[in-house]
């Protein structure tokens, strides 16, 4: 099988009046099928922008992103919507749940958009609610539950369709360490058992230690990369902390 994702010289600029921000600045890398990729970097370094470009919810200013053999920067809106439905699951930084639906309905909606059978939807939804510990709040609306519960619901919704590519922006940001561990183990399971490729933005070194490879961004550029290889998670964690302490500033405060 070929490469899953190929990012070639991607740039994303935002213009505010005269000021131009280079949120992503000539970034190139490839992702192999089934990799569990992490993206780390200080606040404002371009992590969400990069993820949104991969998720096709934002358009590149320049460069190309190939998903298998398709250049997704060239697709029309209709083609993109089909592509997203077929291949992607997202977990946005601000969750993006629908406030007029309960948590359970939010999860079910993701599946009904794919026109799956009712019984399959029920079973899979049930499994995700159990897996992510949402039983007690399944009938509550997003504004009635905690940030961590909303975050777990967003994760269940993204994973319920078994996407080939899962894109997650700070999925453990609002979780305590136990809930974070459960979520990360679920990601690892999806990655190993279903061969899903995962792309996860995180500030947190512990969460990043579950990844097989980590890209470090600074001012929109990749400035370092770590590969887990045969190291244990504990050894990898130490290595991540070492890189973060080198970069100093906000990142190392979190850890
Ligand atoms: N819609 C926008 N308009 C203008 N500037 C933007 C926009 N979105 C992001 N930016 C700028 O682009 C840069 C990268 O932002 P981005 O949201 O990708 O950072 P981030 O690494 O995800 O940060 P955080 O860790 O705080 O979530 C920042 O300087 C930000 O201010
Ligand atoms: Mg962000």
Element order, helices and strands? Answer: EEEHEEHEHHHEHEHEEHH
| Bound ligands | adenosine-5'-triphosphate, magnesium ion
Q: How is the largest sheet built, in terms of strand order?
A: 6-7-8-3-9-10
Q: Using only CA atoms, what is the Rg?
A: 18 Å
Main β-sheet description: 6 strands, mixed
Portion in strands: 25-35%
Mean pLDDT metric: 90
Our measurement of the CA-to-CA distance between the termini, rounded to an integer number of angstroms, reads 37 Å
Structural class: alpha/beta
State the total count of DSSP E strands.
10
Q: Give the % helix.
A: 25-40%
How does this structure look, described?
The protein has nine helices and ten strands. The C terminus is likely disordered. Helix 3 crosses helix 4 and helix 3 packs parallel to helix 5. The structure holds adenosine-5'-triphosphate and magnesium ion (MG). Magnesium ion (MG) binds next to helix 1.
Observed structural traits:
255 residues, alpha/beta, six-stranded mixed β-sheet, globular, binds adenosine-5'-triphosphate, binds magnesium ion
Spell out the blueprint of helices and strands.
Layout: E1 5-16, E2 19-31, E3 36-41, H1 47-54, E4 62-67, E5 70-71, H2 77-87, E6 88-91, H3 103-112, H4 118-131, H5 147-159, E7 165-169, H6 177-193, E8 197-201, H7 205-208, E9 213-218, E10 221-227, H8 233-247, H9 249-254
Parallel strand pairs: 3-8, 3-9, 6-7, 7-8
Antiparallel strand pairs: 1-2, 1-4, 4-5, 9-10
Bound molecules: adenosine-5'-triphosphate and magnesium ion (MG).
Residues 47-48, 93, 169 line the site of magnesium ion.
Give a concise summary.
With 255 residues, the protein is α/β, with parallel strands linked by helices.
């Amino acid at each position: 099988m070929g490469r899953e994702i190929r990012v070639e010289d991607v740039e994303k600029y935002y213009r505010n009046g005269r000021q131009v921000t280079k949120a992503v600045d000539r970034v190139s890398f490839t992702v192999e099928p089934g990799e569990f990729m992490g993206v780390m970097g200080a606040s404002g370094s371009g992590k969400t922008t990069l993820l949104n470009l991969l998720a096709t919810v934002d358009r590149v200013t320049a460069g190309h992103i190939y998903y298998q053999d398709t250049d997704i920067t060239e697709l029309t809106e209709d083609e993109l919507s089909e592509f997203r439905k077929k291949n992607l699951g997202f977990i946005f930084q601000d969750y993006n749940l629908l406030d007029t639906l309960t948590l359970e309905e939010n999860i079910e909606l993701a599946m009904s958009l794919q026109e799956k059978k009712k019984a399959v939807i029920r079973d899979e939804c049930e499994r995700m609610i159990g897996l992510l510990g949402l039983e007690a709040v399944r009938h509550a609306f997003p504004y009635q539950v905690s940030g961590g519960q909303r975050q777990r619901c967003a994760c269940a919704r993204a994973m319920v369709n078994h996407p080939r590519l899962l894109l997650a922006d700070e999925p453990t940001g609002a979780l305590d360490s136990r809930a974070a561990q459960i979520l990360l183990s679920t990601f690892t399971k999806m990655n190993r058992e279903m061969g899903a490729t995962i792309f996860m933005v995180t500030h947190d070194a512990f969460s990043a230690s579950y990844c097989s490879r980590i890209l470090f961004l600074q001012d929109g550029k990749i400035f370092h990369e770590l590969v887990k290889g045969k190291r244990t998670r504990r050894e990898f964690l130490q290595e991540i902390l070492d890189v973060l302490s080198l970069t100093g500033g906000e990142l190392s405060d979190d850890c």
